[in-house]
Write a structure and sequence with these properties.
globular, 452 residues, transmembrane, MFS, single chain, mainly alpha
Length: 452
């Protein structure tokens, strides 16, 4: 039985899809600027500022573990923010997450060091990192839901890709800010220089708030709230009707391990004594790769609107397993040309295929009434594992931290579950927005929930 057409009044007003995509891009860029400057600092600065300098290997391991702490907090944030996002709307969560991220990041820049307050310093660092994780848990899911539900037919992939394109923009901005900071004299860098990028989050929060507070709620959510009312317990409905899709999203979200290994572990490895590449050069690898990703993500997403989500996502997931091996090999040689070329290929081009498509691919698995919860919970559980992939990589690399091939194989293994998830998922790029996540049985037995 076919699913009824979109209810009258549920169409997005002219200009709203573009406005929603722009708000998602800018908000995500500003939000993830905060999130990613922590990754650069965890690899380059925090081992010396917050941990015991007498044991550099352990200090680096502990610092990278604090990077993963935010990912551990994200599933908790997803449960809470997903619940309220499906009850109160996408806009409120988008504004809240941005303000929380700005505050927690600013506080990191104000923290005392280990030399000043001892072990209290890393404890405070972890608490701020937890707040960052809670904020990030609701950011992408709310922005994805906002853009998907505003997008015109046949272009959901393109419009939802702006969220991840914005994320890459934020990472690029964070990297560019850290390049001059990392080039500062050592004493200035470790005393006050590293704090400046974190203090800049105040401007991030203000700009993001001005942009997002003017955005309209999505017509799909507004229509659902008016006709059916919001779901009292989104999590219950989600697990009852979409448990298999939640598992698919969890498995698919492990693809983010490619990003964390590339951004954090590879940076720490390349600048270690084992390889000896310069901080500035390696930061430029990330900057150029993200610059290429800004162009590649919408192109891959547009392709998915034509040929489907699954084939494009599979290119990114399977291809990343291969190109990450090549990239880490290039780093191990100490060759700057090889490292730049393969870094851009791996992260800027190939990984962008999966990264640009998953916002639509995951969001299209769920109905409007539980979409934010489904995407938030599924992605954040998977992202939690991806966050700690950096810590596991540091252990797998051995006492000297130079077994890059073991890390490459570990990363490739983490790309297998996303491939399986994509192969088992439905193709949804041509399914009408109002029919997303609706099974034929439900459309037959409960037609009143999808009709005007």
């Amino acid at each position: 039985m076919s699913v009824p057409a979109t209810p009258r009044g549920a169409a997005a007003p002219p200009g709203q899809p573009r406005k929603a995509a722009t708000a998602a891009w800018i908000g995500s860029a500003l939000e993830y600027y905060d999130f990613f400057i922590y990754g650069s600092a965890a690899a380059l600065i925090f081992p010396e500022v917050f941990f015991d300098e007498s044991d550099p290997a352990t200090a680096t391991l502990l610092s990278l573990a604090t990077f993963g702490v935010a990912y551990a907090a994200r599933p908790v944030g997803a449960l809470v923010l997903g619940h309220f996002g499906d009850k109160l709307g996408r806009k409120k969560i988008m504004v809240f997450t941005l303000m929380l991220m700005g505050l927690s990041t600013f506080l990191i820049g104000c923290l005392p060091t280990r030399d000043q307050v001892g072990t209290l310093a890393p404890v405070l660092l972890v608490l701020c990192r937890v707040l960052q994780g809670i904020s990030a848990a609701g950011e992408q899911a709310s922005a994805n839901s906002m853009t998907l539900e505003h997008a015109p037919p046949g272009r959901r992939g393109f419009f939802t890709s702006f969220t991840l394109s914005g994320t890459q923009g934020g990472q690029l901005l964070a990297t560019l800010v850290f390049i001059p900071v990392a080039a500062m004299p050592e004493d200035q860098l470790l005393s006050w220089g590293w704090r400046v990028p974190f203090w800049m989050s105040v401007a991030v929060a203000v700009v993001g708030y001005v942009i997002r507070r003017k955005l309209d709620e999505t017509p799909a959510f507004a229509q659902q709230a008016a006709e059916e009312g919001v779901v009292k317990m989104p999590l219950v409905v989600l697990l009852r009707e979409h448990w298999a899709d939640v598992l698919r999203v969890i498995a698919g979200a492990l693809i983010a391990s490619v990003s964390t290994i590339f951004t954090v572990w590879a940076l720490a490895y390349a600048t270690s004594d084992a390889v000896g590449m310069s901080r500035t050069a390696m930061l430029w690898v990330g900057a150029l790769a993200n610059l290429v990703a800004l162009a590649a993500i919408p192109l891959w997403a547009t392709l998915s609107d034509r040929i489907g989500r699954r084939p494009v996502y599979l290119i990114g997931a399977a291809g990343s397993a291969v190109t990450m091996f090549l990239y880490l090999w290039a780093v191990s040689t100490g060759s700057y040309p090889l490292t730049f070329l393969l870094g851009i290929l791996c992260f800027g081009v190939v990984y962008s295929a999966a990264n640009g498509v998953w916002p639509a691919f995951y969001g299209e698995m769920f109905t409007t009434r539980v979409r934010l919860s489904g995407v938030a919970i599924g992605t954040q559980i998977g992202f939690a594992a991806a966050g700690f992939a950096v810590t596991f990589a540091a252990q797998i690399a051995g006492p000297g931290g130079d077994d890059w091939s073991a890390v490459a194989l570990f990363t490739a293994a983490l790309c297998v579950p996303p491939v399986i998830a994509a192969l088992s998922a439905r193709e949804t790029h041509r399914v009408p927005t109002e029919a997303l996540g609706v099974r034929p049985a439900r459309a037959t037995t409960e037609p009143e929930k999808v009709t005007a």
